[in-house]
Write a structure and sequence with these properties.
The protein is an all-alpha fold and 146 residues long. The chain has 8 helices and no strands. The protein is elongated and about 60 Å long. The model has no long low-confidence stretch (mean pLDDT 88).
Length: 146
């Protein structure tokens, strides 16, 4: 993390830290890095692929790719700086995909129809900001938390 901190934005570092602490360490923390083999990586990938939140939604393909890439980057770093013999992620292959599917965007008519169901003034304002700015729900939530 110290090595990364010098060249990355604080928000990027926060994302990486979250992935490492929430997605990598819970599965791999009891293992020495040299003992993480292809089978362990594949089992971890399968856990990520099987995940569903409380609404039954899986991780997006782009998020899966991001998480997988973080593990592979750590393994590559260990190969260069700590003489790890190989990166097991290379043999296993990646999960997810780099590019997201095209977003489904409402027409003005669809938005106005939707807005007709929102009676709360604050809700109407929030939905108008989201629609007219083009910001996604996750982006709005992230901006709110900062």
């Amino acid at each position: 993390m110290e090595d990364l901190a010098t060249g990355l934005k604080p928000t990027t570092m926060e994302t990486k830290r979250f992935i490492i602490e929430d997605k990598l360490l819970p599965y791999f923390s009891s293992m020495k890095i040299r003992n993480i083999d292809e089978l362990a990586v594949r089992r971890w990938q399968n856990k990520l692929l099987d995940y569903r939140n409380e609404k039954g939604t899986p991780y997006s393909d782009t998020y899966l790719k991001t998480i997988n890439n973080q593990l592979s980057a750590i393994m590559n770093y260990a190969m260069v700086y700590y003489k790890l013999a190989k990166n097991p992620c290379r043999a296993v292959g990646s999960i997810g995909k780099a590019n997201a599917d095209a977003m489904k965007i409402w027409t003005l008519d669809q938005f106005e129809q939707f807005l007709g169901y929102e009676k709360n003034a604050a809700g109407r304002l929030a939905f108008n900001i989201l629609f007219w700015s083009g910001i996604r729900e996750g982006g709005a939530a992230g901006s709110y938390q900062e």
